[in-house]
Amino acid sequence: MIDLFLKGGFAMYPLLILSVVTVAIAIERTVYLRKARINTGEFMEAINGFLTRNALEDAHKHCESTSGPISRIIMAGLKNQKRGRDEVVRSIEDAGAIEVAQLERGILIIQTISKLAPLIGLFGTVTGMIRSFQAIGGAGGENPRMVAAGIGEALVATAAGLVVAIPAYFLGFYFMNLVGKFILDMQKSSIQLLDSLGELEEKIAERTQRFDTIGGDYLEI
Fold first, then answer.
1. What local confidence, expressed as pLDDT, does residue 151 receive?
2. Which residue of 24, 111, 128, 218 lies most exposed, with the fewest beta carbons within 10 A?
């Protein structure tokens, strides 16, 4: 294995670094996304229950005790509940943009590696073939076996580039798919929150109107 690595030439070293970076980011993203995953249905059911009872403090505490991007954007919306619907929407959008950036962190690097690694491997192959032909020409040899051996060694870099690029490509696709699911859950949760807050405002308005009506009748008596 070491001999094969050395035969690939100088291009093998950046490819080795890219492979280590890919593995490190993949492990970090896997751990982060697993911690961020929650049961969105149960979480929003609890939040809607608190809002139905007008228990905003309990809703805040539930968000604080729950990790993940969904709980944080819901918390951002609840904090601005008294400022009106437009402010709630703005705060959710701002928090959502931050959470999406956190979810996508490092994935762009993996996607770049999947495109860069084959180019580095190809560059290593081209330079390796140039050196091989120069060596053969300098020796004055026309043995086909010498040419084949030189080309075979040079192609090691291309193979190594593909070995790095193919897993990186699938990892980038896999993680972006997970991020897409998170974004969809955040959008659904935000819509549910806005609906629940709208119902809460209607209930408060009805109670206020009823109180004003009762108070007015009492004053007339």
1. 73
2. 218
Q: What gap in Å lies between CA 21 and CA 16, rounded to an integer?
A: 9
Chain length of the chain: 221
At how many degrees (to 10) do helices 40-52 and 56-64 cross? 160
Distances, alpha carbon 104 to alpha carbons 69, 85, 109, in Å: 12, 28, 10
Q: Which two tokens stand for residue 142?
A: 């026309």
Q: What percent of the chain lies above the pLDDT cut of 70?
A: 80
Q: Is the pTM of this model over 0.85?
A: no
Q: What is the rounded average pLDDT of the residues 56-80?
A: 90
> Tens digit of pLDDT for each residue in 137-194?
665 555 556 566 667 777 888 999 999 999 999 999 999 999 999 999 999 999 988 8
What is the torsion angle, in degrees rounded to the nearest 10, for the CA atoms of residue 101, residue 103, residue 106 and residue 110?
-120
Q: Which residues contact 106 (CB under 8 A, 6 or more apart)?
A: 25, 28, 29
User: What is the CB-side half-sphere exposure of residue 174 using CA atoms within 13 A?
Assistant: 13
